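Treating backbone geometry as a discrete language has practical consequences that deserve illustration. Part of our work consisted of pairing the sequence of a single chain with a tokenised description of its backbone. What the numbers capture is local backbone geometry rather than side-chain detail. For completeness, the protein is quoted in full, as a sequence line and a line of structure tokens:
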Amino acid sequence: MKLRKNWFRYLVVMIPLFGILFLSLKYREQIHQKYIVWTNSVEIILFGDSHIANGKWSSSLDNNGVLKLGWGGYTSEQLVDKIVICSDFNPKYVFILCGGNDIYDDTFTVENTVNNLKLMADKLREDNIVPVFQKLMYQHNNPKFNLTIDSINTELSKYCLKEQIEIIDTGKNMYDSNGLKASLTYDNLHLNEKGYTIWSEEINKYLKSK
């Protein structure tokens, strides 16, 4: 009888602890995001559309002060208005990736997308924040889309060279003859966990070089 009581007490204590552990692991990214905002310890911001929003950057990057600011489906024009949020956290770097959603807009032009990206960089530099552009990523088996991505990346690279802004090709090891490798995406567009691992490795390389 005494043994049963001890086991019952053990379960009463351990079940809530296991529950807390499970929730902390499941919501690790969200908890860490709130913590660095609360402690005002943001050093790096990942800024952009769904490619940014879907990443678990706090656990994949070699920095404890990584904040994710991503909005699925947003165009570069919509994100221009949100870039000011970055200044509230006073980070050292803001890694930007957006513009792919622009291509689906009837009013899309390469010039307009690149101009929006320029406005983002201008705002960050005004606030003494280092912008780091990431080249827009291909889709799997969508050559027309990928050719447009090439055009945006070419013009953006010219601007970065002129303005001495860094731009990195975080997707360079994710491509084959069909664009984005099929093994790295679950819908031909968005990355799976393997894809984000490769992406994170490229950002970590950049950060180590600094």
